[in-house]
Design goal:
heterodimer; A: 259 residues; alpha/beta; Glutathione S-transferase Yfyf (Class Pi), Chain A, domain 2; Rossmann fold; five-stranded parallel β-sheet; four-stranded parallel β-sheet; 11 helices; B: 440 residues; mainly alpha; Fumarate Reductase Iron-sulfur Protein, Chain B, domain 2; 17 helices; 0% strand
Chain lengths: 259, 440
């Protein structure tokens, strides 16, 4: 695998420079085996487009989003204020993240606590790079493949970002097909609200299995996601439906990085 | 004796409006039991929301069949009520069809009321069929058993009876006009009731007058009854949808409010200059209770939400937890909140305006923990609501109480949270390893 060029904010500081953007990796992107691949794919694209970006590295900490949704406002604000102190210390202006949950909380809940930044979801930023001609996609690998995009709740319904991921996906020249429930009426993957970290309550089905069913009805080759948690849930859903030989689950960044 | 009907009418009118006013007072008092919340922002957008969502019914038509039927009943209800104005003036002054001199305009008005009344009857029958014959999933959920189901049908019956009375009144009037009866001057167009009038062929003038008067009185008394039924029914939405869409959310759905009481404490903890042993300032108020365990911990917009809910169940229908058989139903959250608020209100009425502890609360006695923990915070319920109700905010506030006041989170979540506390990630990985993914 080719070397990834990743520089920390600390290194930028030492050189007395400011990066174009800060890549907020998030806890999943840093530690979850599947999500790490998404982080790597995104960095590959950033390197390809020669983006001067930084990461916080060991100075980054959980945004606190999941604690807040679990009801622990205290822990959330502790995390938020510690992160804000670091971000403000480095005078960060522009942040990009692959995690819609980090995106949402930094965009909507950090400002009142003193953290004011422009934050973009990685699909928005990738589209920006492609529109500016900085990032070229050949669009051969997935040409004509059937791809369906699963809207993450915290990107779509929560923040009305529907088009950026679709427009970014269009650059792969794939055949984009929509699930019956999409955009505002997209069904949750089942991971939000801290469900990712607990067993579901008693019921007659798991939410991710139901959502994967929605996706499978479009007869896709690939299910595209824009969230590390959705990715895990949909991947598990595919296994539950015993379709892992036929359908793969990939992040928009991974699709573009391999196009 | 000549003025007896006028006096009687005035008494009925005053009693009807008076009792309604009394219940509106109760409603206001109960809603104001909620905590204060600042809704003075974004006035322009709020007016727009009210115009678009409540007046314009924009969210109703997301489901086209129910949406179209609802718009007919809604438009019918508003327009036909212009006729009530004439009825009230006639009743008080002893006149008959006081607006008749409007001539062609009057004909047009009465004609359009009749057509709308007919369409309302058709829609109400369709609604009844949907509720009772087709058995749509969302009308059969456990929280709809008993009174809520009855309430839904009663509203349809009342609307049907009111429309039939209106048309009967017009039919008899039309027949009397044809016969040239005294007082019944030719006025109005009767595109629908002229067919009903054919059934009255051969009736004497005196029996027709009895029929016309009876229908006229029952119609207006029925309307006053319906007005007073609202407070006890889910049908209150016809009034509260307007303020509710005005005070509804104007920020992105993903933005959950930050607790200010917590901010103050966290700031103090993170401030290296703060004296940890300092005595609290003299004017320090009682520490706030974190989160919500009973209705008076909610804010007044959340309580207004509860009274506005008309139990249509679109929220529950869209809820991923509910669809997969979990106990959570966002509609039940709203119904429970209203029921408990009513209970608290009655308690206060019986105890001279003071709430006497009844050993009950919203948490556990109405809403179970299992329901609260099943939520994925996906906002599907908020998106689905045609009148801008936010069930998710109540769920979140109650989770806060469970976690911050009772330390009663599910074990797995406690593990997740201690991981964040210890190493800044929801998993037990060292923060120093946060950049290892680059070289893997």
């Amino acid at each position: 695998m080719s070397e990834l060029k990743v520089k920390t904010m600390e290194a930028f500081m030492a050189e007395g420079k400011q990066p174009e953007i800060l890549f907020w990796v998030g806890s999943a992107g840093s530690f979850d085996d599947r999500a790490k691949k998404i982080s790597r794919a995104f960095v590959k694209l950033l390197n390809k487009a020669n983006v001067d970006f930084a990461v916080l590295g060991t100075e980054e900490s959980c945004t606190g989003d999941v604690a807040k949704r679990a009801g622990n406002e205290f822990l959330f604000q502790m995390q938020a204020m510690m992160n804000i102190e670091v971000l403000n210390g480095y005078e960060i202006k522009r942040i990009v993240t692959c995690d819609p949950h980090s995106f949402n909380t930094i965009k909507n809940e950090y400002p009142e606590l003193g953290g004011n930044y422009e934050i973009l979801h990685h699909t928005q930023y990738l589209k920006e790079l492609m529109d500016a001609g900085r990032l070229q996609i050949e669009g051969e690998t997935f040409k004509g493949k059937r791809i369906t995009f699963h809207d993450p709740c915290y990107l779509g319904r929560a923040n009305s970002v529907f088009e950026a991921p679709r427009e970014a996906l269009a650059k792969t020249n794939a055949n984009l097909v929509e699930m019956k429930r999409h955009k505002r009426t997209a069904l949750c993957c089942g991971a939000g609200g801290a469900q990712m970290f607990k067993e579901p309550e008693k019921g007659d089905m798991d939410i991710n299995v139901m959502r994967t069913q929605d996706a499978l009805e479009t007869n896709p080759d690939i299910i595209a996601t824009g969230c590390p948690y959705c990715n895990t849930m949909m991947t598990d859903g595919i296994k539950a439906h015993e379709k892992e030989d036929k359908v793969t689950v990939l992040d928009v960044a991974e699709l573009l990085a391999n196009s | 004796m000549e003025y007896l009907p006028n006096v009687l009418f005035a008494i009925v009118l005053i009693a009807g409006i008076g009792y309604f006013a009394k219940n509106v007072g109760r409603l206001r008092r109960n809603i104001n039991l909620g905590k204060d919340v600042d809704v003075s922002d974004n006035r322009k957008e709020r007016w727009k929301n009210m115009a678009r969502i409540a007046l314009g019914q924009s969210k109703m038509v997301v489901r086209p069949v129910a949406g179209l039927l609802h718009i007919i009943v809604y438009v019918g209800f508003i327009i036909i009520n212009i006729e009530v104005l004439e009825i009230i003036i006639d009743g008080l002054l002893g006149t008959h069809r006081v607006f008749a001199p409007l001539g062609a305009v009057y004909d047009f008005l009465i004609g359009s009321f009749e057509i709308l009344a007919f369409l309302v009857i058709v829609s109400v029958v369709a609604f009844w069929v949907r509720r009772n014959i087709i058995k749509l999933r969302r009308f059969l959920k456990p929280e709809m058993r008993g009174w809520p189901k009855k309430d839904g049908n009663l509203i349809l019956y009342i609307e049907l009876v009111l429309m039939v009375l209106f048309l009967t009144m017009n039919a008899a009037d039309y027949q009397l006009q044809q016969l040239g009866a005294e007082h019944y001057t030719k006025a109005g167009a009767f595109p629908v009731s002229q067919f009903i009038a054919q059934l009255m062929e051969g009736m004497s003038i005196s029996s027709l007058i009895v029929l016309e008067r009876a229908a006229w009185w029952m119609h207006i008394v029925g309307i006053l009854f319906f007005l007073n039924y609202l407070y006890f029914s889910k049908h209150l939405h016809i009034l509260l949808a307007f303020p509710n869409t005005f005070y509804g959310r104007v920020t992105p759905k993903g933005k959950f409010k930050n607790l200010e009481a917590v901010t103050a404490e966290v700031k103090l903890m993170l401030d290296p200059n703060a004296d940890p042993f300092a005595a609290p300032a003299e004017d320090t108020a009682e520490p706030d209770k974190f989160g919500v365990s009973d209705v008076r911990d909610l804010n007044w917009v959340q309580l207004l939400n509860a009274y506005t809910c008309t139990e249509c169940g679109r929220c529950t229908d869209e809820c991923p937890a509910n669809q997969t058989g979990k106990k959570l139903s966002p509609r039940k959250i709203m119904m429970d909140t209203r029921d408990r608020l009513e209970e608290v209100g009655k308690n206060m009425d019986q105890n001279k305006g003071e709430f006497k502890d009844d050993g009950k609360q919203l948490l556990d006695d109405y809403i179970t923990r299992e329901e609260l923990w099943a939520c994925t915070t996906c906002n599907a319920c908020v998106e689905a609501c045609p009148v801008s109700i936010d069930p998710l905010s109540i769920i979140m506030d109650m989770r806060q109480y469970l976690v911050m006041e009772q330390s009663a989170a599910p074990t797995e979540l406690n593990n997740m949270m201690s991981n964040i506390e210890n190493n800044g990630a929801p998993w037990p990985y060292n923060q120093m390893d946060r950049l290892n993914w680059v070289n893997e």
